[in-house]
């Protein structure tokens, strides 16, 4: 027990001795050495402060960039919705304009020819609307609950005329009308046809025509 106590006393004495020596070193420094030591301490303290400030600046910039990214994503989503809304409004205006022209009799649609056949809009309407009493506005375009566009007969006719395969003279309109009559849906105002079904009917009429040529 006495030995341990003596050891502890010795360690304490050693620590006290180091402090005394450190104090003696400071006392033994020349004024120039004391100034250099003070300058070194000040430089180290300034370095630590600059480092902490730099880290805080980086954290602040990161937070600003993250906020800007979120704002840009929100703005992109808003623009996407606006574009979709304007596209829908444009479709409605185009369909309404075409309907008004048809009702005013400002022009009479000419028959179109696909191969040896002549087909008029009246023929198309009569075929696809066969058996439907409530036909509704012919040029309306609506969106289904699952996000697909639905075309009334007049709008489907306009869509057909703008299709690239029709413009190349490859579409058999009678076969398109026959297929659409079988897949007509009702949206509460009258029969409508999904954009997917219209495209499928167009493509199938072209494929069928190719088989006939073979």
Automatic annotation (TrEMBL):
Stretches assigned to coiled coil: none
Keywords: Nucleus
UniProt superkingdom: Eukaryota
Gene Ontology cellular-component annotations: cytoplasm; RNA polymerase II transcription regulator complex
Xref: CDD domains: bZIP_YAP
Compositional bias of kind Basic and acidic residues: 46-60, 68-81
Region ranges (Disordered): 1-81, 95-115
GO MF terms, alphabetically ordered: DNA-binding transcription activator activity, RNA polymerase II-specific; transcription cis-regulatory region binding
GO BP term (any one): cellular response to oxidative stress
Domain BZIP: 30-93
Regions of compositional bias (Polar residues) in chain numbering: 97-107
Any one Pfam family match given in the protein's UniProt record, by short name: bZIP_1
Location in or out of the cell: Cytoplasm; Nucleus
Family classification: Belongs to the bZIP family. YAP subfamily.
Protein name: Basic-leucine zipper transcription factor-like protein
């Amino acid at each position: 027990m006495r030995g341990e106590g003596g050891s502890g006393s010795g360690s304490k004495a050693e620590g006290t001795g180091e402090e005394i020596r450190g104090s003696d070193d400071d006392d033994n420094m020349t004024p120039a050495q004391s100034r250099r030591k003070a300058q070194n301490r000040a430089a180290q303290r300034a370095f630590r402060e600059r480092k902490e400030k730099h880290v805080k600046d980086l954290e602040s910039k990161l937070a600003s960039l993250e906020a800007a990214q979120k704002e840009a994503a929100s703005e992109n989503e808003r623009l996407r919705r606006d574009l979709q809304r304007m596209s829908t409004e444009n479709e409605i205006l185009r369909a309404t304009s075409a309907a008004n022209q048809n009702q005013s009799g400002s022009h009479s649609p000419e028959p179109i020819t696909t191969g040896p056949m002549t087909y008029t809009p009246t023929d198309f309407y009569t075929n696809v609307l066969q058996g439907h009493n409530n036909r509704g506005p012919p040029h309306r375009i609506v969106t289904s609950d699952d996000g697909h566009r639905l075309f009334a007969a007049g709008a489907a006719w306009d869509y057909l005329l703008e299709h690239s395969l029709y413009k190349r003279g490859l579409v058999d309109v009678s076969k398109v009308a026959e297929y659409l009559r079988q897949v007509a849906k009702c949206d509460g105002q009258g029969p409508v046809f999904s954009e997917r079904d219209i495209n499928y009917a167009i493509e199938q009429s072209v494929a069928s025509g190719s088989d006939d040529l073979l």
